Amino acid sequence: MASSSSNHPESSQPRRPLTPAEMLATPVEFVRGVGPQRAELLHRLDIRTASDLIFFFPRDYEDLTDYRDVADLDEENIQTIRGQVVEIDGRSSGFGKSVVGVLVRQGNLYLRALWFNQPFMREKFAEGQQVLFSGKPRFKGGRWEMAHPRVTWLDGPEDQPEMRLLPLYPLTEGLSQYQVRKMVASAVEHYGHVLEEVFSADLLQQYDLMPLAEALPAIHSPQDAQQLERARRRFVFQELFILQLAVVARRWQQQVGFRAPPLVATPDIHARIQRLFPFEWTAGQRAAIAEVAADLAGETPMNRLLQGDVGSGKTVVALYAMLVCVARGYQAALMAPTEILARQHAETLASLLRASRVRYLLLVGGMTAKERAAALADIAAGKIDLVIGTHAVVQEDVRFAKLGLVVIDEQHKFGVRQRAALRQGEQSPHYLVMTATPIPRTISMTLFGDLDVTTLREMPPGRQEVRTYVVGPAEHGRWWHFVRGKLQAGRQAYVVAPLVDESENIAAASVAEAFERLSNGELAAFRVGIIHGRMSPGEKEEAMARFRAGDTQVLVSTSVIEVGVDVPNACIMVIDSAERFGLAQLHQLRGRVGRGKLAGFCAVMAGEELTEQAQARLDAFARTSDGFELAEMDFQLRGPGDLFGTQQHGLPPLRIADLRHDQKILEEARREAKELFAADPGLKSPDHVRLRRQMLVRYGNALDLSDVG
Ligand code: ADP
Ligand code: MG
Fold first, then answer.
1. Among the atoms of ligand 1, which is closest to the Cα of residue 316?
2. How close is the Cα of 121 to the center of ligand 1, in Å?
3. CATH architecture entry for 466-624
């Protein structure tokens, strides 16, 4: 390893001492003990500066505090025993395979440590040595064993080392725990002291937070579980507090900086819109409409998230808002995540607006340049009232004459930033975003903390029950027999093929494979269609149209049909290799059936070898049809990543907080952030300079906070 000390910046006499901020920004390669080669490996972990290394938190800890006698060992926990080496043996089984065994004695009890394929371990031991072994033991053949234990060599019988919690860091190939520990410790030692406390003494006391100077060494090298807990609490609070400050700041910025046209729904407008619908609104829809109407009537741009299960009738609320907007002389845009959905929304609008003078336009990818130019000209001239399209198409180069409202369907597919894209100067349209992926409260507070949330809980009348079955490999035959019966009776079915990989290529291949298998096998007697992401928009639309018209009886697809698609005659949903899907996604898929007059049937086909957790998830899915319950369960089981990949929401990942376990701290941090911001909007007070800087460094970019304060 090349030595880095010669080109360390501190050795080249700077003219003035570095400020703390400059010190912390020292490139990681210059941190003592790192050097250029390891620095490159650290970059892969997104560690670029001394500060990044200091705040590279352990992902877990190895508990070496459970120190036991051999007589008290169990097979459940990582435990540490002490003993004297009495025998060392090494065996090679050829083909490069070997086992090293080290037998230690403790009184009249023994434990044997084993290393597989690490012949060099043999050289590290000598008879008579005093050692500590830490690991999870097994009782085998009448004796305790530990495979690959952690070893501490002691100086002699008097050596009583400190039993500790050993930090375990995320690693990358080429770096060992030991090396990372050393480097982090070095960064903490050489740069930790320049960090300044961001919290006031009052606040530390009020929230029972460990001061930074104590918490920093404690998080990386805790004495015991209690100290670790306190240190962790401090950093989790800080992380969530900064995030909440950013969210509050963003909201403030939107309210202070932008004006939206007040769109008042007079009783007359309200009544006229209501008459367009062929059904009564549910109580939930009426409440949601009232909230939306109140927002629209104000000059502060609406920023509302409307969430509700698939089929809960969100579109009604959105259409209402759009029609109010048009009635007040402004334009509205509806953005859908896929072209299929955009078309479907256009059809809904068409039937609703048959007898009205509202001018609407579907803006999709397949238009000719000439058609598109004409459409854009009409929109810019205000000749079009409503524009429906995919979000990409609507955003590109569309200029509106008088844009009053933007509705975004399926918000979880959109980044936070995209919402800002349609603003012009100080003018902002109202925003309504809809999602059918129920969002656990913690997540919506975190990611959409700048949105007001309306939830549709009840379903419109006439929704049919969907019965869900977990179909194991042995029952596949019986299930397809059932499906054939339904198809013969004139019904239709969806088959969703496994999501093998994120890559469209592989997903398409697996769909093609399922299509071949079914159309030559179980469903050979029926008309089977296929749709997947690699088809052109035209091909997709055609496949969809054929299915809608009943020309194809079965539609094999990737999860592109996940959102929004509505074919009332399709009452069967088959999800292949369902264990690969998240619960929220399964729920979305199931929501495709049971929409019309027909009861729905959903089969989740499980692969051969299910983990216990996968089985539990599928069973839970079959048991409940409450999307919120499932979302919460998914969140608890798989974490938030599933719902909101970082690429999707555009926020940097959390470094230490775990939203599953830290909900209480999140609530505290949110409350405090709101109070602090209310007392000092823009965080201008000198007391808040550091907080403000942290907020901008971390979230300024992702949340467009550049002009706060
Ligand atoms: P979402 O967008 O929430 O999935 P939709 O708005 O598409 O749900 O509504 C699902 C179906 O229920 C649509 O066919 C719609 O026409 C119908 N629907 C919505 N609201 C009502 C209602 N109050 N009464 C009867 N049917 C309704
Ligand atoms: Mg919808």
1. 6
2. 68
3. 3-Layer(aba) Sandwich (3.40)
